Structures are given as C-alpha cells and as structure tokens.
UniProtKB/TrEMBL annotation:
Keyword Coiled coil: yes
Coiled-coil positions: 288-322
Protein name: histidine kinase
Alphabetical UniProt keywords: Coiled coil, Iron, Metal-binding, Phosphoprotein
Domain PAC: 234-286
Family: Belongs to the hemerythrin family.
Domain of life (superkingdom): Bacteria
InterPro entries linked to this entry: HATPase_C_sf, HATPase_dom, Hemerythrin-like, Hemerythrin-like_sf, Hemerythrin_metal-bd, His_kinase_dom, HisK_dim/P_dom, HisK_dim/P_sf
Histidine kinase domain residues: 338-581
Length: 581
C-alpha cells in the first residue's frame, strides 16, 4: 500500500535531501502496509526502528548542511528543535509498543504522515529556499502550496487504495457491493455481476434484485430499509436463483455508510454462499428426524416392555394371591379334616351310646314301674316293701322318671348339633370340590355363620333377611370363603356391640347377597384401595391384607361384581352380585 505517493511536487531542490525524504516516505509506506496487513509486531517494531535510525541520519545531514551553508542561527535552532522533538516522540511511541503492540496504530501513522509532510513541504522548503538564495515565499502562500500538494497526494493514495480494494473484492467469491442513498449499487464486485448477470450501466433499483427468490425479496428489502432508517447492522439469509446452476443460499451482512456529518450515504453489503451449510443443515435435520423416529420407536418398545412387565407383575400378584388362597384353603381343609376326624369319632360314640342309654333307661323305668305295682300288692309292713318305699322317697323317683328322658334327649340334641357343626366345617373348607355345582346360598351363609359364631356372637347381633334364593351353579366353597371374609371384616369393624345384617335377593339374571354392619365405616380416601393385595388398615401382625383381595378375585372369576357403600361412623355395606347361568 502507499500512504504517500512520491512525485516532483515533494522535491525541495536539494538532491541529497530529496533522496533522503524519498527514503523516509518509502519506510513510512512500508510501515503503513505492515500495520494494515497485520504483520507480526516484531516486524512492525523493526520498521519503526528503521524509521527512527534513518530520520536521525537525515536530521544530522540536514543540520550539517545548514551549519556549512551559513543558515540563520535562529532558524537553525528552531529547525533542530523540531528534529529533537520528533525523535523523542517517535522513540516514546516505540518504547510503549514493546509492551502494547497496538499502540503502533493509525494515530501514530497519522502523526508521522502529518509531521513528515509538514517537515518536507514547509520547514525543509523554507530551508531550501534560503540556502539557494531564491526569492522568499510568505507563510500563507507556502502553506497553500503545502495544502494543495497534500490534497493531491492524498487523492492519489485514496485512488490507489480504492483500486486495491476493488482488485481484492473482485478476487473474492462473495457478493460485495456499495449503494448510494437511492439504494442503487455504485460498486459491485465481479462475483456480484456474475451472479446477477447485470452490466453496471444497466443496474436500476427495480432490476438489481431480479435474481433473488420471489419468496425472499420482501425480506431483503425490509433489511435494507431497516439498516438505512435505524442505522444498524442487518444480517439475513435468502435464496438466489441462478438458472441452470440452481438455487444458492446467501448469508448477507448489510451496514449503513455514515458520513462524518452523520448523514447516510447509502449501504454496504457482504454476502457469502452458504449453500453447502444449508445442505448440511438439511441433511442434519433429516438425520435428527431419523434419530428422533428411532428414539420414538425405542421409547415405544421400552414402554411396551414396561407395560408387559406391569402385566406380568399383575399376573404374578394374582398367581401369588391364588397360591396364598390355595395354601390357606389347604391348611384350613387339613385343619378341618383333622378336627372333624378327631371330633367325629367321639361324637359317634356319644351319639350311639346315648341312644343305647335311652333304651336302657326306658327298660329300667319299666322295671321300676313293675316294682311299684308289686309293692302295692304286698303287706305294708313287709320289710322289703318298707325299704323300697324308703329308697323311692329318698331318690325322688317320680322326678327322675320325668327328668331322665329330657336329659337324654337334650344330650342327643347337643351331639346332633356338634355333628352338624363338624359337617358344616368340612363342607365349608373342602378343597377337593372346586368344580361348579348347584349351591344353596342361604344354607352356605348359615354354615359359615356356624363357623364364625365365636367371632361374631360377642360383637354383634346377626339379623338374617333371606329372600328364599334357590340353588344356582357356582363354586360353593369359594363363595363361602367370600361370605366368611365379609362376616369377619364386619365383626372387626364394630368397636363395641352392634348389628350385622345378612340379606339375599334377586335381580334380573342375577342373584345377590349383602353383608352390612353398623361399624366405624371406611374412609373415602382408602375405599379405592381396599381390594388391593396386602392392603390393610389393621396393625402389623393383625392382618395380611388378602381377605378382600381374594374375595374380589373370586367374584371376578365368577363374572360377578361387588358394590361398596360406606360412611365413616355409620357403617359399611357390601353387595355381591353373581350371574345366574
């Protein structure tokens, strides 16, 4: 780059001095180029050192020339002072640049240019005129010449800079343009011309965006308008249609051109082809969609597996409940079989012996009656008659004759009742009869009441309201199990002494039974959980939480339904409905 262009106008008329001035200008131009192109700061410092060294050499040559030529002492002193001040200033800047390379900036360059031009075109010009004995030029005229030469030189430098910029812009594969205040391009680089296919002399405000995709043109115009009115940078993406070459995506940055007075002179823009990036983004979106779909499928698969696990866990719980019920029923069946066996044999002896004893007693009573008739025909003072009468009176034979048959009959009734309880127990808990068969519901309730009589009699009065339900086909032992669980729960829900109502009845195609208690009721918050396995409100060790769960499963297996009505402090009612085949 050239910050000062050397020409004859810069000559002062002293050959050696002019050559030295030209050398200084050359070093200054090198320094400007190094700063502009971002050379390493060591290289920049080397150029600053070279400038200082050569300037000192030049100053020594000038001072020696002035002394040898008899230059005015006052002017010499002033001239030398300018030399010393310059060396001191530049040396200070160089020292600062060691710690902060950014100090070699445009400010320093502007100082160097201004000082060097003033030194050549004013101070040294005055010296040269004086030494050559040429007519003196007043300061005003000299300053005017200096200004004209500087403007001319700076214009040339500016033109050179513009040419370099255009040359650089034409080499870049990017849109580079500058517009005026009417938004018409006053500069477009070669790539822009190739893209839009418009010669510069034919560009108008209407046609210079003709290659922009119609769907994006409004976006582009809005960005240009906003940059112009709000004086702010804009960045947009839009499509360019290039005919057979296809559509290109451009990323463009637009900035306003603002003059020193604050007025807008137009816009500048820089656009890059981002088609490959857009293709990569589109490909990435496809990949993301594919990965998202794969993840969705994996998540669905995991969800299906989770649901299967939940279903398997539910089946496991049901199997566990069946096993618990089976074990419970098996244990109860074994217990009932043992109890029935142990009680049934003695009951058989008792029942048989009581019937024999009844016959024996009847025979004895017949003998006693015969003795009484015989004693009536013997003399009253007969010793045998007297002893017989004494024994009859002592034993209260008349009372015994009336009471003994009653005692034997009561004993027989007790044995019969015990035998019935044993039979009910065996019928209730038999595990060898799981097939469906006709079942007398009300008889089953009565049998179950016999089994749990000891659990209920101290807690509640049982009120039976039967509707005369006829036998229907089901697994009777399982329905007995449901009745047992409901009765036991009803008794345990009554804290003091209350009532338990047992009802039966019909609905179309259904038979039902109810167990209602006057206990403490079930809180609403847990009513939905009472049929869950292992859920219980009883203290630890007092319940397993399986009774209602097993009952609910039995009802489900029979395609039945169970309804709950409960209010805290008032009681609970369960209604079990079973379909009639």
């Amino acid at each position: 780059m050239t910050i000062i262009t050397w020409n004859d106008q810069l000559n002062v008329g002293i050959t050696n001095v002019d050559k030295q001035h030209q050398k200084l200008v050359d070093i200054l131009n090198q320094l400007d180029e190094a700063v502009a192109l971002g050379y390493k700061y060591k290289k920049i410092l080397q150029l600053v050192d070279e400038l200082i060294d050569y300037t000192q050499y030049h100053f020594q040559e000038e001072e020696q020339l002035m002394q040898q030529s008899g230059y005015d002492a006052a002017q010499y002193k002033k001239h030398k002072l300018e030399h010393d001040e310059f060396i001191e200033k530049v040396t200070q800047e160089r020292t600062m640049a060691i710690d902060n390379p950014d100090t070699v900036s445009s400010v320093l360059l502007e100082f160097l240019v201004a000082w060097l031009m003033d030194h050549i075109l004013y101070s040294d010009k005055q010296m040269a005129l004086a030494l050559s004995r040429a007519p003196a030029i007043n300061d005003i005229e000299l300053r005017k010449q200096q200004a004209d030469i500087m403007h001319s030189n700076l214009y040339l430098a500016l033109r050179e800079s513009e040419n370099r910029f255009k040359e650089l812009a034409d080499q870049l594969p990017a849109l580079i343009w500058i517009t005026n205040t009417q938004h018409i391009p006053i500069f477009c680089n070669r790539f822009w011309v190739e893209i839009f296919g418009l010669p510069k002399q034919k560009i108008t405000m209407d046609n210079w965006h003709s290659a922009i995709d119609p769907d994006d043109i409004e976006l582009v115009k809005q960005a240009y308008q906003k940059a112009s009115t709000e004086l702010c940078e804009q960045q947009i993406e839009y499509r360019l249609n290039r005919g057979e070459k296809g559509t290109f995506w451009m990323l463009e940055k637009i900035v306003p051109r603002i003059r020193a007075n604050g007025h807008v002179a137009g816009l500048m823009g820089f656009g890059m082809d981002i088609s490959l990036q857009k293709q990569a983004e589109a490909h990435l979106e496809i990949l993301v969609d594919q990965r998202t779909e794969q993840l969705r499928e994996v998540n669905q698969h995991l969800e299906d597996e989770k649901n299967q696990q939940v279903e398997l866990n539910q089946q496991l719980k049901e199997v566990q409940s069946h096993l618990v019920q089976s074990e419970k029923m098996a244990s109860l069946g074994q217990l009932a079989a043992g109890v029935a066996h142990e009680i049934n044999n003695p009951l058989g002896y008792i029942y048989s012996n009581l019937n024999t004893l009844k016959q024996y007693i009847q025979d004895l009573l017949n003998i006693v009656e015969s003795g009484q008739r015989l004693a009536a025909h013997l003399p009253a003072d007969d010793p045998a008659v007297v002893e017989f009468l004494r024994l009859q009176q002592s034993a209260d034979l008349d009372f015994m004759k009336d009471d003994i048959p009653d005692l034997v009959q009561e004993a027989l009734e007790g044995a019969t009742r015990a035998k019935k309880i044993v039979q009910d127990l065996r019928d209730f808990s038999r595990i060898d009869k799981q097939d469906k068969s006709p079942f007398d519901l009300e008889a089953g309730i009565d049998a179950t009441l016999n089994i749990v009589s000891n659990e209920i009699k101290y807690k509640a009065e049982v009120v039976k309201e039967y509707a005369g339900v006829k036998p229907f086909v089901c697994v009777g032992s399982q329905i007995n199990q449901v009745i047992l669980n409901l009765l036991v729960n009803a008794a345990q829900a009554i804290e003091e002494f209350g009532k338990i109502y047992i009802r039966t009845g019909y609905e179309p195609n259904w038979v039902w039974f109810e167990v209602e208690d006057t206990g403490k009721g079930i809180p609403v918050a847990i009513q939905s959980k009472i049929f869950d396995p292992f859920f219980t409100t009883k203290p630890v060790g007092k319940g397993t939480g399986l009774g209602l769960s097993l009952s609910y499963k039995i009802i489900q297996d029979h395609q039945g339904k169970v309804d709950l009505q409960s209010a805290e402090g008032k009681g609970t009612k369960f209604r079990v409905s079973l379909p009639i085949p």
